[in-house]
Amino acid sequence: MDGPVSAQARMLNLVLRFAVKPRLERDPDLIRLRREVDAMARVAPDFPRNVVRRPAMIGGVAAERHAATAHAGGRTLLYLHGGAFVAGSPRTHRGIAGRLARGVGAETVVPDYRLAPEHPFPAALDDALAVYEALLQECVAPGALALVGDSAGGNLAFALLLRLKEEGLPLPAAAVGLSPFVDMTGSGDSMSGNAGLDPFLDAAGLPLVFEAYAAGRDPRDPLLSPLFGDLAGLPPCFLQCGGSEILRDDAVRLHGALAAAGVAAKLEVWPEMPHVWQAFARFLPEARAAIARVVAFLDANMAPADKGALAAVA
């Protein structure tokens, strides 16, 4: 995306580079990471205005449902949170889930899927499938249902699409990947080319993530690395990534593979944005702008719904 980078984004990059990344490199304890991510969400919660949140059990999986106060029903987003398969929860993603619900005029469902290393592959994917099937059983029309996922959740979103194809289940109307992590082999050029530019992620941590989530498996298995799957027949897809991310080429190559498979796919590379910058929408104008573009894509590809008066993203 064009345009000057905001002062808020520059400050965020500095904080990530000098306060967060060195700590992760020095002590890559995945369970500690989980505790810290959860603590951060408790200390600095993000509750978008005019959004109602409630707990739920869906398909035997704990989840949270988000909807605008003026929500009239009809559309559903299944949001799969990131966190390297070992961290994150509905609590950590309330901000983005609520903003998407309000903008799209949908109910956003965020499963609390099982995490590795206690629950390795395919536990998280099984939970995502169980929730998706339960939503269909609730009579959510596939044309009014979309998948969204960030980072590891982007991996799960595209792995779920492949699983749905395998099992002959209805596909959703659209899918969105925010900085999706779709190649567990780490073979993208940006893994090395952006190693010094990425203010947050460290390529050296990739083996730790794979060991926790899928030890002993082939990293090219499409359900682990959807980049290598048969993508033909998937619904319209929208990808966003930061230009300085080590995962940039995951999104770039996935976009190319989708296009080669005949899938309507759109890619946005945002210069100087960190990994999943959309999660910082409380204070980052680029995050709010990116979410607005996701909302526009979903609105154009999902069955119509009465969005009420609260479509603005703020």
Automatic annotation (TrEMBL):
Record domain Alpha/beta hydrolase fold-3: where: 77-278
Gene3D superfamilies, alphabetized: alpha/beta hydrolase
Family, per entry: Belongs to the 'GDXG' lipolytic enzyme family.
GO terms, molecular function: triacylglycerol lipase activity
Protein name: Alpha/beta hydrolase
Keyword entries, A-Z: Hydrolase
Domain of life: Bacteria
